[in-house]
Each structure stands twice: as structure tokens, then as C-alpha cells.
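Practice record 12: protein with zinc ion.
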Amino acid sequence: MSELHRVRAWADALIRHHLDPRFGAGAWSFAFDNAKRRAGLCNYTDRRITVSKYLAEKFEDDEIHQVLLHEVAHALADPDAAHGPRWMRIARELGYVGGRTHHGEIAHERAPWVGHCPGGHEHYRFRKPVREASCGKCSRGFSQAYLIAWERRAA
Ligand SMILES: [Zn+2]
Ligand SMILES: [Zn+2]
């Protein structure tokens, strides 16, 4: 397992080295979050990379370091790059050796469009949703009763 203060030190070093927080408004920061089902997150809105405290305590140092590289690569690319070739090239340059996702990371959590159904499920889209969609978890087929309400996260 990784010690949290060391994870933070690596994260700060990576951000300092690759994302340059010195220029006031564009500064990236690091924080732990309480997610249980995904390891890392790159939040473009807040310009913050977060890592699950819960999983950091379970992962080996190497793994958590890879999670950080994965997320720093997202920050260096942009939201539209998703896990495509551009992101992968940057990730490889940083020394990331993993795949597109790791340990249950929910890639879409960084998508700019977030939707909520009446049942409280979250949905993610990289492109503006153009037609009505209902929640597939609440209802198997299309259902007017479970329409997803979309909003664009502040850019
Ligand atoms: Zn990712
Ligand atoms: Zn639902």
C-alpha cells in the first residue's frame, strides 16, 4: 500500500514538472477524493487531479504512480482527447505503461456533459446530447418517465 503523504509528494512533483502551477489562473492542484470505484480523476473544470484515498491505501506504489501519470496525461491533453491516440502518446512519454483505463476508472467521468435521471444515476457524454435519452439503468427501453436531464459542466 502507498502512504498518502508520499502519493501527494509525487503528485505535486508531477504537477510542478509537467503542468506548471506557477501561473496563477491555470494552476493545477492535487487532492485526494473518496471514490471507491475508480482510482483517479482529472477534473478540467477545477483543474485538479484527484486520486482515491481509499484505493491509494490499497495500491502498491508503482500502481498509484501509474494512476497519477494516467491523469496527468489527461490534464496535458484536453477533454476531447479522451483515451484516444493523442492522450496515449502523451501518457507514454510520461512513462505510463498501462491501458486506457485502470482499476475500474470510469473514463467518462471527465466528459463535459453530465446527465441525471430521476432515479439519481449519473450519465456522461463527450458530445452534446442531441436527442432525448432515458436512463438504461432505470428502464431497459426508452421511457419518458426516466428521461435524462443534461447539463454542461462549466468549462
Ligand atoms: Zn483515463
Ligand atoms: Zn436511472
